[in-house]
Specification:
globular; Rossmann fold; three-stranded mixed sheet; methyltransferase activity; alpha/beta; seven-stranded mixed sheet; FkbM_mtfrase
């Protein structure tokens, strides 16, 4: 009888370590990570436009990948990572601990027009979790409903004074970004979700960036991941 295969303790990608949890690191995600292709488009933009002295606000922290990349590969000293899914927070902290990450403040909250509370739908695949209860549930279905904090978006930006925005919030970008004065940003990297927000939503994101003095930067944009910056 063959011995059961030994499961890895960590999955490594771009020199970073992620505790192996098969519910979070699926077979497909594991393959992408081992080939350094996980979040490839967003990672390439971040690595080329973010500087060590930037203050970064990340909306949609996921499993802690981007905040770890920012601090360990670029030496960014101040990152505020917002993640709505409360079930991901312990894993994010575990990722940061595994990589000796410092300087990241993790917020279990979303941003909105005003302080409050909202219902959040946790799905089997964490990337599909969202505020929406009417999405097609091809990602494991809704496994839990959680009440989460909403923080006033403009107040958060005023308090943190970020120079860089990294945003992947599964379609909420269309409603959120037009609420915020983005003029304090040096650059922004946003993953768009046109399949959910449509042409009007995409246009709203571009309009919000233009109002903040940020211009579309095609060289560091790739498909749905779009980069904006000030100056040329």
């Amino acid at each position: 009888m063959k011995d059961a295969p030994t499961l890895p303790k960590f999955i490594r990608t771009r020199g970073l370590r992620f505790p192996y949890d098969p519910q979070i690191i699926t077979r497909k995600r594991r393959r992408l990570m081992r080939d350094d292709h996980y979040e490839h488009k967003e990672s390439e933009a971040v690595l080329r436009v973010v500087k060590a002295d930037d203050t970064v606000i990340e909306l949609g922290a996921g499993m802690g990948y981007m905040s770890t990349l920012l601090t360990k590969k670029l030496g960014v000293k101040t990152v505020h990572a917002f993640e709505a899914n409360p079930r991901m927070i312990p894993y994010i902290h575990a990722v940061h601990a595994a990589n000796g990450v410092e300087g990241v403040t993790v917020h279990n909250a979303i941003l909105g027009a005003a302080d409050g509370r909202a219902k959040f739908y946790v799905r089997g695949d964490f990337v599909a979790s969202s505020l929406a209860d009417n999405l097609e549930d091809a990602h494991g279905g809704v496994i839990a409903e959680e009440e989460i904090d909403i923080r006033n978006a403009q107040a958060v930006f005023d308090e943190i004074s970020p120079s860089v925005l990294v945003c992947d919030i599964e379609g909420a970008e269309a409603d959120l970004l037009p609420l915020i004065d983005l003029s304090g940003l040096r650059c922004a990297i946003v993953e768009l979700h046109p399949q959910w927000i449509g042409q009007a939503g995409v246009q709203g994101v571009f309009d919000a960036m233009q109002a903040g003095g940020l211009t579309y930067y095609p060289r560091m944009s790739n498909a749905k991941v779009v980069t904006f910056r000030k100056g040329w």
